[in-house]
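Form 7-S
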Amino acid sequence: MRRVRAIVSGRVQGVSYRASTVDEARRLGLVGWVKNRVDGTVELEAEGAPDRVAALLAWCNDGPPHARVDRVAVEELAVTGTETAFSVTR
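Output:
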């Protein structure tokens, strides 16, 4: 298992980035959350099989059709094993 935190910069708010991230993470069978930050970035934590987490991070570099991703900063975290779904949080 692998858990990461990612901060996504660019035009990532107001373009369905969070909802699309939820869809992609659920499709990959991951758990965690995604939220908008006040600085205009999107933050997410995702946990699951290492190859599936890597697939989500690869997707994050493009995001949904109207997004423009400039940077995805990734931090490795300790696996928690406490979540059961992937959702939008505040």
